[in-house]
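**Backbone geometry record:**
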Amino acid sequence: MAARAPAQRAAPGGAAKICQFKLVLLGESAVGKSSLVLRFVKGQFHEYQESTIGGNFSAFLTQTVCLDDTTVKFEIWDTAGQERYHSLAPMYYRGAQAAIVVYDVTNADTFARAKTWVKELQRQASPNIVIALAGNKADLSVKRVVEYEEAMAYAEDNGLLFMETSAKTAMNVNEIFLAIAKKLPKTDSRGPGGVAAPGGAQSGNVELKPDGAKAAGGKCC
């Protein structure tokens, strides 16, 4: 198991309000969606992560990101990538304010599938949804088949946030959620209450605070 990412410094002044947003992860099976969420919420990585989760279509977790004057609470829906579950996806991304579409940099088919998910979100999700593209497993550089420049060009052409990530090493995992938090509108301030997880859903609430010295975007190593 990889070591937990170092704690980041608290934002100065404290958060003045809380904004709550629904975020959904989409992508092919085995690209590392659940591993990204586990790394972000609990700072953990399991080499052999069970498919989402226990055979269910989705898992629900929560996490907060503290910006200078706002605490952003993410309600994270991690969905299964198997094709047989595709018809269920709209009920999860409907009403979502943000989405992370994940592909595996060592598998070109998952990148092609990610493009399909982006098109579907642009066509059927909320008009103002913030979409981020995550090229996961960037630690496996010797097996890379999807080049950074190709994915970046696609993201720029489609108005997406983009980072390459590694759930295993924690590279750019916090940063991609932070970039999303910064881009979301902060006009809808809510109290600490939120949408309850369905019966049997798993949730965690671990505070993550951005490090002002770290850039929110940029090419990963």
Notes: The CA atoms of residues 165 and 172 lie 5 Å apart. Strands lie at 17-27, 58-66, 70-79, 98-104, 130-136, 161-164, 207-208. The two ends are 21 Å apart (CA to CA). The chain has one domain: 17-47+55-183.
